[in-house]
Amino acid sequence: MKDIIIRHKWGVVTLLYALLSSTLTYYCLELGNKNPLMNGIFYTFINILTIFVIQSVMYLAVRRWWIASLVTGIPLTVLSIANYYTLCFRNSPISTQDIHNFGTTLSVIDSYSFPINVFVIGIVIFFVLNIAVTVQLYRREKGKRYSLKNILIKNICLLIFCGLFTHFVYFAENPIKPRNTFVWSWEESYYNYGYAASSIEVFQNSMNMVDMPKGYSEEKLLARDESRRVKTTQGKTPDVILILNETFYDMRDLVKLETDVEIMPFIDSLSTRGRAVVAGTGGGTNKSEYELLTSNSLQLMPGITPFNYLNFDDANSAVNYLESLGYSSWGAHCAEALNYERGIVYPKLGFDNVLFREEFGEIEKFGERPYATDEFCFDKMLEDYEQMGDGPRFQYMLTIQNHGGWDLNPDTEDTVHSITDFGDYTDDMNEFLSCIRKTDEAFKRLTEYFENSQRDVIICMVGDHAPSFAVELLDDIDVDKTFALRSTPFVIWSNFDTDYSVPRVLSMPFIMPTVLEMAKIKLSPFYSHMLSIKEDTPVLTAFNLYKTKDGETFNYSDDTKHKEKIDIYFDMVYNNVAEDTNRIDSIFTPQN
């Protein structure tokens, strides 16, 4: 009897050590998530048990807690450190979608620095403590033998615990950890619910990539007489140039900023310009790229990188839409084709010709920054523009000049200097602003090329996201600051008279329909419906909010006079994207 009690006590102590190991791993993850205050007692406990479930699954495979502790703790500690630097570089946490983006990360990693600070030191300290706990587990389990009956009882108990915990906390109809907690900022979810618990939500979203709108039906879409909404007076075919400019952002929207010279003198002088509300902050180029080229809001697709996850076979996009009107098309990005799988997706979007880093040859750089300048990329675009034939032409360029980091050049290369002191970020600010100045100069040169062209040309340039260090300049983040962080400049220029008024703030999916209408290009029911929405609600975000033309902010679930039109738009997006629908092609094709 005494032996039984001792063995039982021994097993409980071993289990407590395993739980302590999970606790230390939890603190590593939260420090890597820049969350030193943790998540409150309840969700701290939920996250620790989530990690313990992972550790238990490992134990079931190897039958030793000390091995399970190592196999769980080491990768999650590495993840913690990687996540910390990822937050520094792009201001969004690592998630399951980044497995697909690993090649993209490697292609730009040499342009960043990795300083050691209190968060990284804290992670290392907790990892060392975890190793000490693992050593204790090893000593307790060394040489121990267990009967088959004992193993079966332990395994069954662990399986029951793991199954019940994950079901009721994450996968039940009304789970303990709420679903869809990602709203206007990633911090709102990750800081309240913890990295482990939030990562489970991201994983769930990636398994169900496109959310079906409430009340969706193909019959409802078919019943709508969308053709009466199409503006039949449209029908011109000017050349269209679309530029998604890497980290093109106006810091004046976010902070009080005084500089020794103007930052964007040419763009500031143009009349047709404004702000585009994008899906991400400090990163997420591919999300902006997707919303720009397809006009599909990512509101229905939270937690995914579109090019890595969605099926683009016969996908509706601005590319194949313009091709259906007789346009030839060209798309380029001066980086590796493997980044976000663009080498696969661009042709599927419909581009006749695509160019990536290897086709650009020797590139021109800004000082010691490793990226091709906007001027160089625009020159290549113009060189190929002249070879595109006599028909209407569509060109798309994703630039790279302004990519982070922003401490790569010596101070002598800076052409713009902030008079406002931003502490440790002043040097980053100066290099970033100098990059934006070069973008302004390159765009001016581009418009001068077409100013006296015999062909009608319309050019739209828009930024993809703010620089990652922008959030570090803020003391706190509220809804208004989130909108500022997610609002990038857009500018539209043409060498012909458009007589068109563009709202000062648009969401990214509205950019292309606006360009089409401004250029008097024939519209599909999809684009036409979006333009009818734009009149009253020009901002439909990917973070559960929309804004009216008067600046009022609503949630998509609010019962307002705008709801019906917005719901129809999301029904159209779902019909276009989800694999389990029968796409109604007439919605997305030009109407006679």
How would you characterize this protein structure?
This protein is 47% helix and 9% strand. By secondary structure, the chain is an alpha/beta fold. The chain folds into 2 domains: 2-207, no CATH class; 218-587, Alkaline Phosphatase, subunit A, CATH 3.40.720. The strands form 2 sheets. It has an 8-stranded mixed beta sheet, with helices on both faces. It has a 3-stranded antiparallel beta sheet with strand order 9-10-11, with no helix packed on it.
Layout of helices and strands:
Layout: H1 2-32, H2 40-62, H3 65-90, H4 102-108, H5 118-141, H6 148-171, H7 186-193, H8 195-207, H9 218-223, E1 239-245, H10 265-269, E2 273-277, H11 285-294, H12 306-309, H13 318-324, E3 328-333, H14 342-349, E4 353-355, H15 357-360, H16 374-385, E5 393-398, H17 426-451, E6 457-463, H18 479-485, E7 487-494, E8 505-507, H19 511-518, H20 525-534, E9 539-540, E10 545-547, E11 553-555, H21 563-577
Parallel strand pairs: 1-5, 1-6, 2-8, 3-4, 3-5
Antiparallel strand pairs: 2-7, 6-7, 9-10, 10-11
